[in-house]
TrEMBL record, chain A:
Keywords (A to Z) from UniProt: Cell projection, Cilium, Coiled coil, Cytoplasm, Cytoskeleton, Differentiation, Flagellum, Spermatogenesis
Region (Disordered): 1-30
Pfam family, one: CEPT76_peptidase
Family under the similarity heading: Belongs to the DRC7 family.
Domain named CEP76/DRC7 peptidase-like: residues: 210-282
Domain Dynein regulatory complex subunit 7 C-terminal stretches: 647-754
Name of the protein this chain belongs to: Dynein regulatory complex subunit 7
Gene Ontology biological-process entries: cell differentiation; flagellated sperm motility; spermatogenesis
InterPro entries, per database record: CEPT76/DRC7_peptidase-like_dom (IPR056290), DRC7/lobo (IPR033551), DRC7_C (IPR056292), MORN_DRC7 (IPR056291), Papain-like_cys_pep_sf (IPR038765)
One CC-aspect GO term: motile cilium
TrEMBL record, chain B:
Keywords annotated in UniProt: Cell projection, Cilium, Coiled coil, Cytoplasm, Cytoskeleton, Flagellum, Leucine-rich repeat, Repeat
Name of one Pfam family that matches: LRR_9
Protein's cellular compartments: Cytoplasm, Cytoskeleton, Flagellum axoneme
GO cellular component: cilium
Protein name (database record): Dynein regulatory complex subunit 3
Higher taxonomy: Eukaryota, Metazoa, Chordata, Craniata, Vertebrata
Length: 756, 510
């Protein structure tokens, strides 16, 4: 077979490689995305003695099974692996743990498996597959059947000590085909009541569709109750879920159990006591079960092993170790997760798209589109989540039903803005803004601006102000069309209403609860807080004495407290004076608020046009390049090696050796030159820009100044980075050259021919 | 030449105020009379000998009487709002007359002839104290100022002790919260040096203070406990107090005791009675708890009801006020007599409706509140009756015990008397007691009186308990009821007055 020839050849190369690698007993095959030539280890391509014996046991089991239960479907016991070799399913499971914190829980593993691999449907859907690829190859190709999904997930779970099993059985159509279009999107609020969707046409193959999922039993890993995990979606289901219609068999890396219970009602009522041989028929009788392993460990801990006498247990055939090599998962895989970096799922009236970070230039990582109708034709709302944006935008929702665009930001951006929503009403626009009140000097928490009215809510102010409402004069009629565009600052204030919290240091009667500035009528109205057990507050109405002297007539008071002395004219005069001062201050504050509203809109527009993603910290550091460089060096060698035939005479070998070294040297020099060039170019540009600035800085506009500053800072960082790279490059070039020299000298093909 | 002294009187004060007051041309002259409203009076360099005529200026906040000829601090008793008092450069010899100035923060007595810091107990808010250039000679006297927890600035330069070496260290060490001494900021190093010098003294003082505080706390706790017991009407019932008080006025108690057998009887009697008292005590406390809980829930439900109606009233008022404002605006623009009078009449109607609505709310509120009161009253009455019954039972049992005891004692005494009369050997009896027992009548008489006295004590205690319980109940509910009625009346008068106020607003359009 072709495979055999190729394998022998590759094997030789690999052996050479092995000797050079340090500290590896089992060859650790890292998963990369480069399409390299991959060499399968020996265990993948051959059957060991124990395995052959196991296959015979399985064969005889299968035969007995068909005789005893002729009406049951054949079991999946020994499918072919990717190299065409028959392997028992239990040995395809390789319990492997990883060090990534995301993969320490079953939820994390299930999520990873569901998203990392893409599904290949079983063809035909009612038959068991003939092939079961190993988890390592599936991780490489990223395509898998549901059986391979389950095998990978089960391996990961076994590695972190869950009592997990692969289950072969039957499931509902939606589950087998990974069709979630009838399920509500998990991101949407669950109080969206789901009306009973129109009944789907009955699935003709109901109960016959083969599916494979994972069962987790209680007892290990702090699991309290048994549950199923569907490896295609990563979600968990209780064992009596109606999506699962029957179980044929379950297996883990220690044994294989066939289900003897009645599955006519689905998985309801199934007992998962695998040690009970009446319910679950094991393939290997008496093999160590998980429970026994745990007990053994405990016994050893208690030192109950009497070394002198050990009972001779009848030798039982145990499940051999897995033939799959260690599964290792890269950090990169966890980050980019989805093949192509994105995933689209269709739910009921919704579409959910997930992207890897940095994939989209505007930083979108999730997009949820909801539709008005079942057929997903009319968009009702689009909600997007972002990450790493330099304008701190985290969420944006464009709601067609309410005609609004809302944006939510991370703490700490300009204006301390946290939330911004623009709704277009029939009468104009409404703009709502929320801020982090404790970070702002004016303690503003929320502002709502709609046609001719502005409301502001404050929190924690020392003057106890909690609410301010400003009513403006509506603009002239013919200006209606441009009322949004005209500078807001020019609007005239008609009335201002301010409300205050209760200041406990003052008696209720003297503590102003609300004050109204009737600007157009030149009046002030004060309402005080309610006294204890009173329902009517004290009030005072003061009128500005424009053409006359101030007298008691200018004030009309309703005093609730009968014991209070009426205030003297002097005191009233003082109050009026204070109010007038406040009025002047108010106009300034209102102008500032209006300006801020305009600024926020302008700022958002500008930021939207200049979206940039904040760089990952890792990318800025050049150190990880070292590793990659070394691999690169060696890889370039590999390509040469493939061309090297076994018979090289001395001359050719030497020539090859020297030319390789020369090539490498040239490459190093070229790189250094490139870096140097880049450095010089950047410095030149920076100097030019600085000169320009020095000549023109008096006449530059604000925007240009900002641009200049941005440019400068960027360029300086670039220059610095290039400088660092250049220096390191010079340092390391020499070392790499030496390392390459050594490698070539030790290469088995070249070595015998090299002159010492 | 001695400066000519001036009399401090109203005229002088008013002139001073007028000089300092705000531009009076913005206010019409007639309204400018309210001078007692002044908050600052400066009367420096006025050659004043005696402080006088300040009684009506109760809103005074700052008073400067420095650089005068004042010999005695007096006449400041009505100035309760004073926070700043400057009496420097006078001829004051003794600190006095400052007791009513509780809000005083700044006190300047520099350049006088004061020898002792005293009589400043009530000035808790004092933050700045100037007493430079006086005749203070005792450094320890300065420690008098330690009671002012808010004191941050002391100026004492120029006194007799100011030249002593430790002057600075002493003050800095004993006043850790002081920020400025003699107009100089106290630096950290100085603080450290000073505290290290006087460490032992400071520690001793601190210890004493903390001990005092502890003792005070203990006392306070005890008092609080006693109050608690009193509230439960079972004070002093948690021990042998009642028992012992029964025997307070007994005659021959010690003699009687020496008769064998009586001691044991006494002991068992005591135990039983103490047990009964304890039971009653515990029950009393439990009952009190229950009552408290009941009353708490009562008051919170009253509050709830009130808030509910308050919110409704506020809503009604808000709606009305809005309408009223618009109506006034409209009236200002209307000119036709007919439309004006129409609008006005509508206005008056609305005011009447408002007052009706508010009154209805008020009546609903009061009926609800009264209902609650009735309910809680019945409940508490029941509880109280139960408790009274139990108390009465307990006391009856005590009385029975006493009777029992009396009988038994009588028997023993009888027997002893017989023995003594017969002349037979009576062991363990001291001689004088034996003599006592020769007079049979006296002994029996004494026994009987004792018995009666005991019963009297018990009855007294019982009565006390019963009367205090009932009187508490009556007083409490009367108080509650009165308060509610009072509030209701005030609110109704508010409604009427507010309606009048609103009507007045419309009157100018007639």
């Amino acid at each position: 077979m072709e495979a055999a020839v190729q394998s022998a050849f590759e094997e030789q190369l690999r052996i050479g490689e092995e000797k050079e690698k340090e500290n590896s007993e089992e060859p650790e095959l890292t998963v990369t995305h480069d399409n390299q030539e991959f060499c399968n280890p020996e265990s993948y391509m051959t059957k060991s003695v124990v395995e052959t014996r196991l296959l015979n046991v399985a064969d005889s089991f299968q035969r007995q099974y068909t005789v005893l239960f002729p009406d049951r479907k054949p079991l999946l016991l020994c499918p072919l692996n990717e190299c065409g070799v028959k392997k028992f399913v239990s040995t395809t499971l390789q319990p492997s743990a990883s060090s990534h914190c995301e993969l320490q829980t079953w939820q994390g593993c299930a999520y990873f498996v569901a998203n990392f691999l893409s599904l290949e449907l079983l063809e035909p859907p009612v038959d068991l597959p003939k092939h079961l690829f190993s988890p390592t190859s599936v991780l490489r190709t990223r395509r898998a059947t549901c059986f391979e999904f389950a095998t990978l997930l089960c391996s990961l779970l076994l590695g972190i000590n869950y009592d997990a099993y692969c289950v072969s059985g039957y499931a509902a159509k939606e589950m087998c085909l990974l069709d979630q279009s009838q399920f509500p999107c998990p991101l949407l609020d669950s109080d969206v009541k789901e009306e009973d969707s129109q009944q789907q046409p009955e699935d003709l193959l109901r109960g016959l569709r083969v599916h494979c999922w994972v069962l987790v039993l209680a007892g290990s890993g702090s699991i309290r109750e048994n549950f199923f995990i569907d490896p295609l979606t990563g979600s968990s289901y209780p064992t009596d879920s109606s999506s699962f219609l029957g179980i044929e068999s379950v297996w883990n890396d220690l044994n294989y159990h066939v289900n003897m219970q009645d599955c006519r009602n689905g998985c309801v009522g199934l007992k998962f006591d695998l040690d009970d041989t009446n319910l679950w028929e094991p393939v290997l009788h008496g093999a160590t079960s998980r429970k026994q392993l745990i007990l053994d460990v405990l016994n050893k801990k208690e030192n109950r092993m009497i070394s002198t006498e050990k009972e001779e247990q009848p030798r039982v055939f145990e499940m051999p170790r897995s033939w799959v090599t260690f599964i290792s998962i890269h950090e990169k895989d966890l980050e980019t997760l989805w093949p192509d970096g994105k995933k689209v799922t269709f739910y009921k009236k919704a579409k959910l798209e997930k992207f890897a970070p940095y994939l989209n230039p505007d930083g979108v990582i999730t997009r949820l589109t909801t539709y008005k109708d079942q057929d997903c034709a009319e968009v009702a709302m689009v909600k997007e989540w972002y990450k790493h944006r330099n304008d701190s935008l985290e969420e944006r929702e464009v709601n067609k039903l309410k005609d609004s665009t809302s944006e939510r930001f991370k703490y700490g951006r300009r204006f301390q803005l946290l939330f911004h929503r623009i709704t277009s009403l029939s009468t104009g626009f409404e703009q709502q803004m929320e801020f982090s009140s404790y970070a702002r000097p004016d303690y503003l928490a929320r502002r709502v601006w709609s046609t001719n009215e502005m409301e502001e809510f404050y929190e924690g102010r020392r003057d106890f102000l909690c609410y301010r409402q400003v009513i403006f004069q509506p603009p002239d009629q013919f200006d209606d069309s441009v009322c949004w565009k005209s500078p807001l600052r020019r609007m005239r204030v008609l009335t201002v209403v301010e409300r205050f919290h209760r200041n406990a240091a003052k008696p209720a009667n003297e503590d102003v609860a609300e004050r109204v500035f009737l600007v157009s009528e030149e009046q002030f109205e004060l309402t005080y807080h309610l006294m204890d057990h009173r329902f009517i507050p004290s009030r005072r109405i003061l009128t500005k004495p424009l053409f006359r002297k101030f007298s008691n007539d200018c004030v009309s008071t309703f005093q609730v407290d009968l014991c209070a002395k009426p205030l003297s004219t002097q005191a009233l005069f003082k109050i009026l004076g204070a109010l007038q001062d406040d009025e002047a201050k108010l106009t300034a504050e209102i102008k500032d608020s209006l300006k801020e509203i305009e600024d926020i809109v302008a700022c958002r527009e500008q930021e939207q046009n200049q979206v940039k993603l904040r760089k990952r910290i890792k990318e800025a550091v050049p150190t990880c390049e070292d590793e990659e460089q070394r691999v690169e060096d060696e890889n370039s060698l590999e390509s040469w090696k493939v061309l090297i035939s076994k018979n090289l005479d001395a001359e050719e070998a030497n020539r090859l050796y020297h030319s390789l070294l020369e090539e490498f040297k040239d490459k190093m020099v070229a790189q250094a030159n490139l870096l140097q060039e880049r450095y010089e170019k950047d410095t030149r540009e920076l100097h030019a820009k600085q000169n320009q600035y020095r000549r023109n800085h008096l006449t530059m506009t604000e925007k240009q100044l900002e641009e200049y500053q941005c440019f400068c800072s960027e360029k300086t960082t670039q220059i610095k980075a290039t400088q660092i790279r250049l220096n390191r490059h010079k340092e390391l070039a020499h070392e790499r050259y030496k390392a390459l020299e050594q490698k070539l000298q030790q290469n088995p093909v070249l070595r015998p021919h090299l002159k010492k | 030449m001695d400066p000519v002294p001036n009399r401090m009187n109203r005229e002088m004060i008013q002139n001073a105020i007028e000089k300092n007051s705000i531009k009076s041309d913005l206010m019409s002259k007639e309204d400018n009379i309210c001078l007692p409203e002044a908050d600052v009076i400066k009367l420096e360099y006025q050659n004043i000998q005696r402080i006088d005529s300040l009684q009506e200026y109760t809103s005074l906040v700052r008073l400067d009487l420095n650089n005068n000829l004042i010999k005695k601090i007096q006449g400041l008793d009505s100035l309760i709002n004073l926070t700043w008092l400057n009496l420097s450069f006078n001829r004051i010899e003794k600190i006095q007359g400052l007791t009513s100035l509780q809000k005083l923060k700044v006190l300047n007595l520099s350049n006088n002839q004061i020898t002792v810091i005293e009589n400043m107990d009530t000035l808790d808010n004092l933050t700045h104290f100037f007493i430079g250039c006086n005749l203070l000679n005792q450094l320890e006297n300065v420690l008098y100022l330690k009671r002012f927890k808010k004191l941050v600035h002391i100026y004492m330069k120029g006194n007799l002790f100011s030249n002593e070496d430790d002057y600075q260290f002493f003050i800095v060490a004993f006043f850790p919260n002081l920020t400025v001494l003699d107009n100089k900021l106290i630096l950290q190093e100085l603080k450290e040096k000073a505290s290290s010098k006087y460490q032992d003294d400071i520690e001793k003082r601190n210890q004493e203070e903390s001990q005092k505080q502890l003792a005070e706390e203990v006392l306070q706790k005890q008092e609080a406990e006693l109050n608690l017991h009193k509230e439960a009407f079972v004070e002093y019932l948690d021990g042998p107090h009642l028992f012992k008080s029964m025997f307070d006025e007994d005659t021959f108690s010690s003699d009687r005791r020496s008769v064998p057998g009586i001691e044991d009887l006494l002991q068992s009697f005591e135990n039983q009675m103490v047990g009964l008292c304890k039971q009653l005590f515990d029950r009393g406390l439990a009952e009190r708890e229950q009552r408290e809980r009941e009353l708490k829930s009562f008051s919170s439900s009253q509050d709830e009801v009130e808030t509910h109606y308050k919110n409704q009233a506020i809503q009604v008022l808000e709606d009305f006020n809005r309408q009223h404002k618009e109506r006034i605006k409209k009236l200002e623009q209307l000119t036709l007599r007919n439309s004006v009078s129409e609008e006005l009449s509508r206005g008056y109607d609305e005011i009447n409706k408002l007052s009706e609505r508010l009154m209805t709310l008020e009546f609903k509120l009061i009926s609800k509140l009264e209902e609650n009161i009735r309910n809680v009253e019945t409940c508490i009455s029941d509880k109280v009756t139960d408790f009274i019954e139990i108390a009465q039972e307990t006391f009856t049992e005590c009385r029975n015990l006493e009777d029992d005891f009396h009988h038994k004692v009588q028997e023993i005494i009888d027997a002893t008397l017989e023995n003594v009369a017969k002349g037979s050997q009576v062991e363990n009896l001291p001689h004088d007691v034996k003599m006592l027992f020769t007079d049979k009548i006296k002994v029996m008489h004494a026994l009987n009186t004792n018995h009666k006295l005991h019963l009297l004590t018990l009855n007294d205690r019982e009565q006390k308990l019963l009367t205090s319980v009932s009187s508490w109940k009556i007083a409490f509910f009367k108080d509650v009821h009165d308060k509610v009625t009072q509030q209701n009346r005030t609110r109704i008068s508010d409604i009427h007055r507010y309606a009048d106020f609103l009507r007045k607003q419309l009157e100018r359009f007639h």
